[in-house]
Specification:
Elements: H1 8-16, H2 22-33, E1 35-37, H3 39-47, E2 52-56, E3 59-63, E4 67-68, E5 74-75, E6 91-92, E7 100-105, E8 108-113, E9 116-123, E10 144-147, E11 151-154, H4 161-164, H5 175-178, H6 188-202, E12 210-214, H7 226-243, E13 250-254, H8 259-267, E14 270-275, H9 282-288, H10 290-294, H11 298-312, E15 318-323, H12 336-352, E16 356-361, E17 364-365, H13 369-373, H14 380-396, H15 413-416
Parallel strand pairs: 1-7, 11-12, 12-13, 13-14, 15-16
Antiparallel strand pairs: 2-3, 4-5, 4-9, 6-17, 7-8, 8-9, 10-11
Helix pairs in contact: 1-2, 6-7, 7-8, 8-11, 12-14
This protein binds iron/sulfur cluster (SF4).
Iron/sulfur cluster binds near residues 163, 168 and 169.
Length: about 425
């Protein structure tokens, strides 16, 4: 890394938090400031087959699998000049900043800031199942997706019921993706397509380290979330057919289920679960997550994570927060210190009970309520303190994050720090 080309703010933060690798601060800052690609970088990526392009009428959409730093961490995906705009392009970044630029320099990809090269980048190859079709003619890239790092992901159904009820989580910008081309209920035919797609994906040996199921919330059913549970179980059955066993390291990012529902998903092949509390403070939970508050409230979501430990075991349950939403104006905490005290108290509470906690960096994008409210993300310093605070508590309680660490999901700055804990290989 050309450390001297980092912005003065990032150099200052790196100097005051030496326990965080500068590349991790750079990764966080790129989310806060946004990333674009130059025309030269786009041409190089296209020429090397790193861009999967779909054209629908006058809409041109690009998919890139991952943009990777030399140490394996992934960078926020850039906006390319050749793509048509999407709803999520409307975003609020750190005030007073401009986006980073991925440029081509001497035939290589580089992350640049203000025209100065900072770090070399690599694009990961498009998965080999892209471009293939199921027996019903559906493009397999519409069935499954690939996420950095090494994660094969399925979305079992195409909506979040909280959006239907007009009570989405206020930071949520996922609706555009959740309504795109995915059936709202699985049928025998769509389950067969999942089996075929996962079977094809598995032919790419060594590519996948984790399997993820992820969708919005659906609290309907005789008991709340029964319908969601049933959809997951159906999809897990289709995945089992592809793997030939239930032992496929399945990770579930969904709603808070009760203990009986957790047991049913475990019997179907789930091995780790993430019912996200999103924000630790109960008052803010009610304000920011009105859907979760209605179905069935803060205490229910908290208890669900504790029940999941009984079913899946210590360290196989994660309750994530979206770091920074607790500072939303005017209802959030007034200072960084208050916000950190609150969240880290939650991390400690959960860690004592076998639940790990991680965080995602807040992205303020259309069509979220936060975007309409004009919320801005907090500073990089806030995230540096949150990441180190979470990491220290996790170490103190020796809570593993194996199913969600930097090798399987590089979204969480705090779990990325877990790589510092692993024994060094003897050379
Ligand atoms: S549960 Fe909240 S964050 Fe998740 S999809 Fe629904 S509204 Fe969005």
């Amino acid at each position: 890394m050309n450390y001297e080309n980092l912005s003065p703010l990032l150099q200052d933060t790196a100097g005051r938090y030496p326990e965080i690798p500068p590349v991790l601060l750079l990764k966080i800052d790129a989310i806060l400031r946004g990333v674009r690609a130059s025309e030269r970088a786009e041409a190089l990526a296209k020429g090397n087959g790193f861009i999967w392009e779909t054209v629908n009428g006058d809409k041109r959409k690009y998919y890139v699998d991952g943009v990777i730093f030399p140490d394996g961490l992934s960078l926020e995906k850039p906006k390319f000049p050749g793509e048509t705009s999407q709803h999520r392009d409307k975003a609020i970044f750190s005030p007073g900043t401009v986006s980073y630029l991925i440029d081509e320099i001497d035939g290589q990809f580089w992350l640049t800031d203000d025209g100065k090269p900072i770090e070399r980048l690599f694009f990961s190859p498009i998965p080999q199942f892209f471009g293939k079709k199921t027996s019903r003619g559906t493009p397999m890239e519409n069935i499954a997706e690939s996420l950095p790092s090494s994660c094969l992901s399925l979305v079992p159904y195409g909506y979040c019921y909280f959006w239907n009820e007009k009570i989405p989580c206020k930071y949520c910008n996922l609706i555009g993706d959740l309504i795109t081309g995915i059936k709202s209920s699985q049928t025998d035919e769509t389950l067969q397509e999942i089996t075929e797609t996962v079977t094809e994906a598995l032919k790419e040996e060594g590519r996948w380290q984790i399997f993820r199921l992820h969708a919005g919330s659906d609290p309907r059913g005789g008991v709340a979330y029964d319908k969601e549970t049933e959809e997951y179980i159906k999809v897990l059955g289709a995945v089992e057919k592809a793997f030939g066993s239930k032992d496929f390291n399945g990770r579930f990012v969904g709603s808070a289920l009760n203990k009986d529902q957790w047991k049913r998903t475990k019997e179907a092949g789930n091995s780790a679960v993430e019912p996200h509390i999103e924000v630790w403070d109960k008052r803010l939970f009610d304000i920011i997550c009105p859907g979760k508050a209605k179905w069935n409230g803060y205490d229910y979501w908290l208890q669900s994570a504790l029940d999941a430990v009984d079913v899946f075991g210590r360290g196989n349950v994660c309750s994530q927060v979206v770091g920074g939403i607790e500072l939303a104006k005017p209802y959030g905490f007034g200072t960084i210190d208050e916000a950190l005290d609150s969240t880290l108290a939650g991390v400690e509470f959960f860690a004592e009970r076998g639940v790990t906690m991680s965080f995602n960096v807040l992205r303020v994008r259309n069509p979220s309520v936060f975007y309409k409210e004009g919320q801005a993300p907090p500073s990089v310093e806030y995230y540096a303190r949150l990441a180190t605070g979470m990491h220290k508590i996790r170490k103190k309680h020796r809570i593993p994050v194996g199913f969600n660490d930097y090798r399987r999901c590089s979204a969480h700055p705090d779990t990325i720090l877990s790589r510092l804990d692993y024994p060094q290989a003897t050379l």
